[in-house]
Amino acid sequence: MRIAVLDDDPIFLRLVEATIHQMGHATILFETGEDLLRAMRRESFDLLIVDWLLPGLSGIEVVRALREAGGCKQPILFASQRHEEQDIVAAFHAGADDFMVKPLRVQELMARITALMRRAYPDATTMRLEFEPYRLDPVARTVYLHKQPIELKHREYELAEFLFQNCGRLLSRNHLTEAVWGNITPTPSRTLDTHASRLRTKLQLNQFHGAGQIYQLSAIYGLGYRMEILPAPEHAAASGRQLQTS
């Protein structure tokens, strides 16, 4: 998972970063709300941890701006020294999903992150393997289409698994490369495009396979990729006819 942390206290940022890395997740750190808002236009994150008192825009203003823009569906955890009931209520009204009072307790922070992730991304956290007509086998690192195995290279399987587990989400290029290739060495942008193209061909994506739906992998220019489920043409047409006659 990829978590953005917004706070102007470097000590707090290091603490949260170490905690998140201990959980096996990646962090991207921000010290101003303006920096986070700019990043959100081109990047994708699985969770946001936001402080209240910041230079420039406050945490409340940042969260409100993200929610009002309509594109931010990620869970948001507020972490603040403010602890009055009206402060906590204001944070939830602005769009927060959870609230913690500083100083944070490490084990509680881990538990809250895990709970938010489990609610927001059940497929990714429970390792769903069935995506009719596809089935993923993480041991054999193979994807089956109608019970027929499809030979994939190591990184191709990693990318396929990550896309299926996050179906419906727009994932930035950096998010995908970090999840599949890691942060050890920079990954050329063309590498991701090549692997995505191979997956479309090998998995026969964007085609109807008789399950009433189509898994479509789309490139979003300047941002990244999204795997989404679309109704098969005949099902969509049938739904349209039902709406017209109702």
From TrEMBL:
Matching Pfam families: Response_reg, Trans_reg_C
Domain Response regulatory: 2-117
Gene3D superfamilies per record: 3.40.50.2300, 6.10.250.690, Winged helix-like DNA-binding domain superfamily/Winged helix DNA-binding domain
Residue ranges the UniProt entry marks as DNA-binding: 126-229
PROSITE patterns: OMPR_PHOB, RESPONSE_REGULATORY
Modified residues (4-aspartylphosphate): 51
Matching SUPFAM superfamilies: CheY-like
Domain of life: Bacteria
Keyword DNA-binding: yes
Domain OmpR/PhoB-type: start-end pairs: 126-229
Keywords: DNA-binding, Phosphoprotein, Two-component regulatory system
Descriptive protein name: Response regulator transcription factor
Organism in which the protein naturally occurs: Comamonas avium
